[in-house]
Amino acid sequence: MQVSCVAAISVAAVFLALFTVAAEGKNNYHGIALSPYQKNPANATCRSVDELNTIVAKIADEGFKSIELEYLGYECQPSSISTVYAAAKKHNVVVQPTLFLNYALADNKTDYELQRKALLDAVAQHPEVTDVFLFGGEAINRRTDTEANLRVAFDSLVKDLAKAGFKGRSTINEPVDASLAVAMCDLDFLGISLDPWYEYDPPGPSNVTEWMVGRITNLRKLCPKTKIHVTRFGWTSNATEWGPIKPSLESMGQAFHGVNAAIGNGTFGSIPFTAWEYDDQLWKFATDFLAAAKVGTFVERYYGLFDKPGFSFDDQVAK
């Protein structure tokens, strides 16, 4: 029996309405993304071992169960990855390492090999701490490489991870394009990025949850048997206004709190959510295709949820 799009939308709306009571006083996000870099406005400066240890302890204390570790293989490695793994093990938090692939593999062989080695070394030392492996798919979304090329590299790396002791799940992250998602239905799970600012028709902070339900419902239709993991939900606090998005500390708190309550109320079922990200990264530039068209926005700098003047995660999100 086929279900019309209108009926599917109505079902989603009813499903959302059933869970309108807020889940108060608890952080319901499964994980949070962590950059190995300080939020230095001048350049990308590696965090110290002491800073990383303090941050991981803070993440655990806030109730997060996982850390999505960004940028494997860059100049901060291997010290940052080994420090995060050791601290995560101490605080009973799992690590979800991400290989960041922004351009074609053929043009990034050196960087890719550095990331690959850092990942395999870390997993070999701490296989029990590695929960999910994410093969960054921005190269696919930006069409700088093909899904076929990345899939070959991904399959090869997964085999090597298994040899290193990895027993967790793995995916090519961010398959937001419908055709790409279908090509990845056989993966352990679908990693999807839900970042409204990068949408051409974005939601505002008051209806971001309903928008997410629609996106997830559509993805489930494409791959009904594949689990979904929201590997990035972010809301910038400082950028050019974009449709109903008026970036501010208040709108960030409203969006994150609404999604946090919806997760706690079961709106998304058992789908785990990773919040983007721990702190602002002021060294970043507006290099993304949409951000670059909005001169001076530097949207990627202001996704931080902690160590942010005027913003309290406990008071504005997990309240």
Automatic annotation (TrEMBL):
Subcellular location, principal: secreted
Keywords: Cell wall, Glycosidase, Hydrolase, Secreted, Signal
GO terms for biological process, alphabetical: cell wall organization
Protein origin, superkingdom: Eukaryota
A single cellular component GO annotation: extracellular region
InterPro entries, per the entry: Beta-glucan_modifiers, GH
Any one GO molecular function term: glucan endo-1,3-beta-D-glucosidase activity
Signal peptide location: 1-25
Record's subcellular location: Secreted, Cell wall
Keyword Secreted part of the UniProt annotation: yes
Family note: Belongs to the glycosyl hydrolase 17 family.
Name this protein carries in UniProt: Glycoside hydrolase
UniProt organism field: Acaromyces ingoldii
Taxonomy of the source species: Eukaryota, Fungi, Dikarya, Basidiomycota, Ustilaginomycotina
